[in-house]
Each structure stands twice: as C-alpha cells, then as structure tokens.
Amino acid sequence: MSVALEIAVTSPTGALVARDGGADRVELCVGLELGGLTPSQALVEATHETGIPAHALVRCRPGGFTYDDDELALMAREVRTVLRSGAAGVVVGALRPDRTLDEDALRRFVEAARSVSAHAEVTLHRAVDHAADPVATAARVADLGLTRVLTSGGAASAPAGAATIARMVEAAGPVQVMAGAGVRPEDVRALVATGVAAVHLSAKRPVGAPEHGGVPMGSGDDGSTYTVTDPRVVAAARAALDTDG
C-alpha cells in the first residue's frame, strides 16, 4: 500500500501548491501557529474548488482538548457545516480531564459527520498525543468509527516519537495511523518504516510583511511575518515518498 502525503494548509492558494506538488489531500485550518482552528465556510468552499480532497480541522479554540457542553455542541455543528461546504472529511478530538479519550464526544462528532455524508472521513487529531497513553488510545479508535489518527507518538515531533508511532500502528488495527508534527522531507523515509499509512507536514515558510509596520495585532502576532505553503518542501516530501516506494 502506498503511503499518502497530507499537507496542512490555511488557504486555497496553499491547497493549490499542495495539489500541484503531488499531495494526496490537505488538512485545512486557520491559526496554524496556534495548532490550528476551524476554517470558515467560505474558506472550505474555496478550497474545495481547487479539486484536492480537503479535511477540515474542527477545533473551536486553542489550548487543551477538554471541552464543556457548549463547546462540544458548537464543534458538532461545525462538523456538519464544513462537510456541507465541501470538505471530504473532518479532523477532531477531545479528552476527559483525566487525559483519557472523550469517547462520547468522539461518537457525537462521528455521528454529526455521517449525518451529512456516509462516506465522510473522520480523523482523530493530536489530542491523542496529550492522552495519558497514546498507544492504548489508538487501540480504542476503531470502535468509534474513526478513519485515521494523526500523531507524533506523544513526542514533540513525529521523528522523536517514531518508536511509539510504530506501536500505535500495531494497536490501531484497521484504523490508519498518520505521522505528523515537525516533519521534514528528510524524515519521511524513517516514518514510513514505522508502518504508517500517511505522512503529514505543514511545508510552510515565513513571508515578510513590511507593510505591517511592526505593530502587532495580538499576542500571537509578531507584526512582521506570516506563513505560506512552500512548493519546494511539498515536492521534496513527495519525492521522498516516491523514492521510498
């Protein structure tokens, strides 16, 4: 089975770069510097028009992954909205205060997704890496109707967590495991060796914004740069996968 390439993007332009560089799909979000947040309806629609399958991240706020009832209701609604807007799948996650998987929340998200499309793919995002036991969590996801798990193996980066990722591949059974976080093209071959079904990277590079004038617009804004999808990184990751294959 060939290993898929997924690129995290924040714009239709990024989706085009990923598509033209040989990516199999994109994960679409905003606020990538915050770990990613739910994209708008218009952003999902415009990205869908590029032709590459887009899986929309559904995360209503930055911070941890333990949510109250209002936040869970909002995200279930966002799941339905992004799928109706053209997303091929959704990327979701939630934990309980004891750092175990919030299975009730995941079932709610899966039900919301499949209420729109029986074929909607549902990915558990890197909330799994904040779980007390990522391997045991991976073993639970098949019973929840999930398609795949995105993970760094509980480490700061997927290359650092490669040994745990290999154990998660074994534990997940029919659910795909996708390695992501801090992945560079030169890491791809080692991650493929863990048995993953896909490799995920943001392939981003900073772009200067001198017209900003150095006046920050918020605590997460350095006032001078933003990021775009780098076609050279996408192409290098694709080449690494093709060489490995």
UniProtKB/TrEMBL annotation:
Keyword annotations from UniProtKB, A to Z: Cytoplasm
Domain of life of the organism encoding this protein: Bacteria
Major location category of this protein: cytoplasm
InterPro entries for the chain: CutC-like, CutC-like_dom_sf
Gene3D superfamilies linked to this entry: Copper homeostasis (CutC) domain
Residue ranges of the region described as Disordered: 206-226
UniProt subcellular location: Cytoplasm
Similarity comment: family membership: Belongs to the CutC family.
Protein name: PF03932 family protein CutC
Organism: Curtobacterium citri
Gene, per the UniProt record: cutC
